[in-house]
Amino acid sequence: MAQILVFGESGADGDPVAITAELLGAATRLNEAIGGDGVACALIGAELEMAAQAAIAAGASTVYRAQHDALAQYQTDSYLPVAAAIVEQVAPAIVLFGQTSLGRDLAPRLATRLGSAVAMDALALAAAGDRVQVTRSCYGGNARQVVTVESDPQVVTVRAKSQDPLPEDTSRTGDIVAVDAAPGAARARVVGKETADTSGVRLEDATIVVSGGRGLGAPEAFADLERIAADLGAAVGASRAACDLGWYPPSQQVGLTGTIVSPELYVAIAISGASQHMAGCGGSKNIIAINKDPDANIFRYCRFGIVDDYKKVLPQLELELKQLVADR
Amino acid sequence: MDAIVCVKQIPDPETPAAAFSVDETAMKVVQASGVSPVINPFDQQGVEAALRLREAAGGEGTISVLSLGPDSARDAIKTGLAMGADEGYQLNDAAFEGGDAWTTGLALAKAIEKIGVPEVLIFGRQAADLDQGTVGSIVAELLGLPSATVLRSAELEDGAITVSRVVADGFESITTPMPAVLTISNEFGDPRYPQLRQIMQAAKKQVTVWSPVDIGLDAAQVGAAGARVKMHALFQPKNETQCEFIEADTAEEKATQLAAKLREVKLL
Amino acid sequence: MASAGPGGPLPIGRPASTGRLTASAGPGPGPAALAPPPRRRSRLRRTTKIGGLAVPVWLPLGGLGLLAAAETGRVDGPHRELFFNIANFWVLYALLPLALIVIAYGIARRARVWRIGRADFQFDNPRVRLRRMLRGGVGTERVLRDPYSGIMHLCIMSSIVVLFLVTALLAIDDYLPDDKVRILVGDRYLGYSLVGDIFGLIGLIGVGMAIAHRWVRPRTGWLPSFEDKLIVGGLGLLLLTGFFVEGIRIQTSEIAANREWSYWSPGGFVVAEMLSGVSTGALLDAHKALWWFHMVAALSWISLLGYTKLNHLAYAPANAFLKSTGSSGKLPMIANIEEQEHFGVSQLEHFTQKQLFELDVCVRCGRCTDNCPADIAGQPLSPMHIIQDLKAYASDVGERKAGNLARGAPIDEGLAGAPVMVGEVIRDESLWACRTCGACVQECPVFIEHIPTIVDMRRSLVMEEARMPETVQTTLETLERQGHPWRGTPHTRESWMDGLDVPLWTGEQEYLYFVGCTGALVDRVQPITRSVVRLLREAGVSFGVLAGQETCNGDPARRLGNEYLFQILAEGLIATLDEGGVKKIVTHCPHCFNTFKNEYPELGGHYEVLHHSSLLERLLDDGKLQPKQGGETQLVTFHDSCYLGRHNNLYDAPRNILQQIPNVTLVEMPRNREQGLCCGAGGGNMWMEEQGRARVNEVRVAEALSTGASAACTACPFCVQMFESGVGTVQMGAEESDRLGVFDIVEFLDVAVPVSAVPAGTAPESAAPEATASQDED
Ligand SMILES: Cc1cc2nc3c(=O)[nH]c(=O)nc-3n(C[C@H](O)[C@H](O)[C@H](O)COP(=O)(O)OP(=O)(O)OC[C@H]3O[C@@H](n4cnc5c(N)ncnc54)[C@H](O)[C@@H]3O)c2cc1C
Ligand code: SF4
Ligand code: SF4
After folding, report:
1. Which of A256, A267, A300, A301 to mutate to test the pocket of ligand 1 (most atoms within 8 A of CB)?
2. CA triple B167-B168-B171, angle to 5 deg
3. Confidence band (pLDDT; 50, 70, 90) for C175?
4. Which has the closest alpha carbon to C239: C209, C188, C197?
5. Of A210, B56, C431, C635, which is the most exposed, with the fewest CB atoms less than 10 Å away?
6. Which chains touch B (3 or more CB pairs under 8 A)?
7. CB atoms within 10 A of CB A231
8. Contact between C302 and C103 (Cβ < 8 Å)
9. Which residue of A211, A267, A290, A292 sits with most ligand 1 atoms within 8 Å of its CB, as the best mutation to test the pocket?
10. ipTM over 0.90
11. Beta strands in C476-587 (DSSP E)
């Protein structure tokens, strides 16, 4: 049985990112289950020293490092031949990517180039003989699918935060192999980059929405919501009642006659959950609400709820969430 | 400017969760009563993107809509035609059934070669049924074309195309020569509502239907026979419909516990 | 909506604006200090054709009059009574046809414009039309609804009519051969004199009231114009000169000889007495001049008929005849829609001839606008301005189009720079603000039908141009894809049935209970649906529901202007209903009710349709439902849904139901029944954001609160939602117990009717008002 190859990623200045360790954790467990030949990590970029060390500490026995100034920024054309060369060199049975901007773009192309196929966005991985059984979410989260890639190598992208990394162990050792692969000639060029500040997240595109309603009692409370949203990379929404009061711009109204959102997480603060409001957020994967009225309609649709005065809950919640974000 | 937009017909992703159900043995989604299948919304945005690009380029050129799917998928093509596309092509044959992203990509690539590779090939960022987002890249790879995925805007400039790609921490501007494969994300903006006249004209338009042979493929290369990914199960996750109230003595404790819960269920 | 701007460096992507109509970005003041309404009066230049009038009417008539006056000055022969002191009276007879020609010319010029429209006159139910023409058109029934202007109008109108008859009679009488056959002799003459004088005085009173109207109590919506001054002032002048002419005649010929005769001309007598000191010669000279002035002015004034709103004299009865005879809730169908060249109205020539004619009938009284919920809430719609702006447009562009057609040229020749009718002359937001509530149609004294005109233009926005507020688009898309308008609903059509044993339609039952999209898919309305089911079962009514087989009947699509989608949905549902063998339908939604009852027959769907209020009323009367005394007495006010009341004349049934509930005391809002104010949801506005000073539902909730009622009842699932939402705003911060409860009548009845030996499996559903009250409250 061959190796499992993880395509790790590195941050802008070469520092390691969480997804690499998560992938290595998953790969290690898979390797055991399948009885594979170990876990290798491929890293492509311009400055990879720290990331390579971190990958070893996170469980990689070999790191294939393709370092080149032309690879500072991800580009399909330049990365693809390099990635293909590494796979050829390692000849793995399984190739794991993160379901990230990079993995989403590179994995399907690479799989095709390798004459194989890819399973995207795995939530869970299990071994079944020499195949990886991939459990993935589909139909907007309404269903789960279990699939295997029947061609080789099996390429899988894995959702961030779905896999636990191994405990970091800096005493672990491993080889770092420099790959001498010339970056592909980039037909497409990156000509600019714009970091979105969170206030730029469009309501309908946000994965997290923090919304406030009339129960906030005053426009100032939206400043608190905005701070929390900024920490979470969320967009701020409002009920129509709050917009009508002029507490928040109507462009941020969620509901039947406002914007319809379906984020992963919808946080409703002091919103009663009138059906016209729910029409705009009922499609959210998870709703949590803070409302002082235990009978508020919103709780019918909640995963978690806090019955209390939001003013008492919010300061502590802000601290906790900050901590959560800092940890990840 | 010529373009081909590949579209897929899917169960309406806005079907309320309560109406969504799965036949686990057949591994199929049960169509909710009264809810018709729709064009994948990202693909519809793809059609919109093609139309806007053509308008910006002076309005000349042919926009074709291509879909692999059963008879009903014709409606998805018609949606594109009603919005303003010119030609419709459908890959429809029993042999195509049960395929995966690979066989779909292969068939589409062959069909595109048959139609003639245009300046721009457009896909939705993903189909909102299986949520994979791979077909665009597969086709690009098979045709050897540059690709740019998950785009929020696109602009034509001196024979090249500049796009803005949605990435984790913002947006990336990319310039690529044509022909190129683009996959369009929801950030692109809402697709237009067709005028009634266009709907009626679209209804009258002929859609060209091809089988595997027509595009130079063998029945064994497409559909279930050629698939490389195998599905073993399709099921609905257990839904926690009941709200879990966070109980604690003080509001602060509730906040702490809520945060812990969110971490526990990996929401944050 | 979605297209990129032309030119420029080809930026493709999301336009900056969200596309929503609501533009009031940024925090503003709360509802207590709402911003003033946007001035909506800046409209198209209003082309009254008074200027054009001067040439054809005043100059020749005035000239002839002067000539005649000069002529008569030299004649001093014997005279007959009719033309006392006047020679060359033939000039008058020459002027008469001239006046008629002038009138005809004016009308013909406008008729050219009407005729660019589609000839699509309806003459069904001629008796209804005739009756309406007599009662409303001639009898001014609707004008009289407002006492002040009603009386004013009656004074003026009766005076004109009587004086016209009086004059005509005198003229005829004059030609009768001898005293035996003549009418106006002896006592008859004296009576005649008196009647003439009295109506002259009544006319003056009317004119006085009209002048005072302006200061005493102007209608808020009334649009005063120079025409008004001309007509009223002219009439006043006519009546006054009439009295002076009469007074001089009396003074010079009657008072000395037959003084008691002159008592029968009280007006003339007073004038005569005033003139008693003046020399006869001077009086006779003045008489000549005044007589001619009076006659020429009278003819000129009558000529206004062809050029000003005085035309309503003839047009109002005509329009009363032409107005459609069905329910005002029925929108005209576009037949063979697939074969149409255009959808709805974007050009004047797409209107029917009747619609174009109507523009000229409007008298700018403002009654429509005064009763328009959108205008009342300070939103950018005034039905009068819709009509008037279209009229001005027709006077300008319409006349040029008519000219083109007359010359055989293409209709649009030379009109490239003309303003765009739908979008510029009539703004999109005005069209969208219409609730199709029918208040305007009901109040218009000259029987104008605003709703079809407004919806026709909406149709072109949606079907021709695909230009609409974003939420309208998503509503239509949801209708197309999911068969209901409630995008984002977490429910299915069966969700509301949970735990309730609901009989499914088998084809055997008597009634199909059509739950409707709102009844099934909206949280707040589900309890209403459950109450209906509970009570129908309680009363032993044989009924069933279609559950998952139900689809939208198309009402929202039709009101939102997508006639095509409406027809598709309606045809689909009719097929389902007919396959299921449905004969009788009961609905709790007035919109469903209206569509089934008034609009489906045209599409081949013939059913006996009942609103739940009618059925429940009958069940109460039959003793099948027996409400019991329970709890404290509640003061309850009832809000009429437009589609139940105004459009379908169902005012009593819901009230009777409430009154049969022992602990309910009914109290009416100031605007009730026919005068009721829309909740704001109609015409698809349930799915739009309002623009303007206030929300209609908040205005209405404030009215409900003014009655002191503790609960507002309605019989419409849209009204319920609008009220609940409005209560949240109007009573923000109020204690829960002080808040206005909002219920459907059936919820009240459900609580009042005790659960008897329930058929097995039926969970005792008491959607107690108290329980549902917590829905939207703090
Ligand atoms: C045609 C139509 C269209 C509509 N469209 C929309 C729409 O698009 N979007 C929309 O949002 N609404 C819409 N509405 C309005 C909707 O019906 C509700 O009125 C509105 O959503 C209520 O907003 P809310 O929940 O903020 O206010 P409320 O209903 O007043 O709720 C306030 C909540 O805050 C809670 N609360 C109060 N104080 C505190 C505290 N200190 N701590 C914690 N909780 C507290 C209360 O318990 C209550 O549940 C529409 C209504 C209509 C009729
Ligand atoms: S139907 Fe109602 S809302 Fe529409 S214009 Fe007439 S009065 Fe106004
Ligand atoms: S449309 Fe009718 S109600 Fe309105 S101003 Fe004209 S005449 Fe009056």
Report:
1. A256
2. 35
3. confident
4. C197
5. C635
6. A, C
7. 17
8. yes
9. A292
10. yes
11. 511-514, 543-544, 584-587
**Are B112 and B143 contacting, i.e. CB atoms less than 8 angstroms apart?**
yes
d(CA C99, CA C102): 5
The amino acid at residue C120 is D
The ligand that comes nearest to the alpha carbon of residue C451 is 2
Torsion of CA B22, B28, B32, B37, to 10 degrees: 150
- Would the CB of C440 count as within 6 Å of ligand 2? yes
pLDDT per residue as tens digits for the range B186-200: 888 889 999 999 999
Cβ atoms of B76 and B69 within 8 Å: the answer is yes
Residue at C628: amino acid letter: K
Q: What is the DSSP letter of C394?
A: I
HEC sequence for C704-725: HHCCCCCEEEECCHHHHHHHHH
Pick the CATH number of C471-619 from 3.30.70.330, 3.30.1370.10, 3.40.50.1860, 3.40.50.720: 3.40.50.1860
Distance from CA of B58 to the nearest CA of C (A): 9
Cα(C732) to ligand 1 centroid in Å equals 11
Q: What is the pLDDT of residue C218?
A: 63
CB B114 within 8 A of CB B140: no
Four-way CATH pick for B3-226: 3.20.20.10, 3.40.50.1220, 3.40.50.620, 3.40.50.300? 3.40.50.620
- Sequence spans of domains, chain C: 31-47+627-752, 51-77+87-118+154-311, 327-468, 471-619
Q: Which residues of C touch A (CB under 8 A)?
A: 18, 20, 22, 24-31, 471, 474, 486-490, 522-525, 686-689, 695, 721, 724-725, 728-729, 732, 774-778
Task: Indicate the DSSP class of residue C251.
Answer: I
Q: What's the whole-number mean pLDDT along residues A149-166?
A: 92
Q: Which two tokens stand for residue A208?
A: 């997290």
Helix (H, G, I), strand (E, B) or coil at A2: coil
pLDDT tens, residue by residue, C562-609 = 999 999 999 999 999 999 999 999 999 999 999 999 999 999 999 999
Cα A295-A299-A304 angle, rounded to 5 deg: 130
- pTM of the shown model: 0.87
Rounded (5°) CA angle B251-B253-B257: 120
Could you tell me if residue C204 is left (phi over 0), alpha (psi between -120 and 50 degrees) or otherwise beta? alpha
Q: Which positions 490-519 of C are in contact with B (Cβ < 8 Å)? A: 490-493, 495
pLDDT at C34: 34
**Arithmetic mean of pLDDT, A58-70:** 92
pLDDT band at C85 (very low <50, low <70, confident <90, very high): low
* Alpha-carbon span C163 to C294, nearest angstrom: 13
Is the pLDDT at A184 greater than 50, yes or no?
Answer: yes
Distances (CA, A) of C707 to C63, C591, C695: 63, 27, 20
**CA nearest neighbour of C348 among C457, C424, C429:** C457
**Which CATH topology does A4-178 take?**
Rossmann fold (3.40.50)
pLDDT for the residue numbered C181: 73
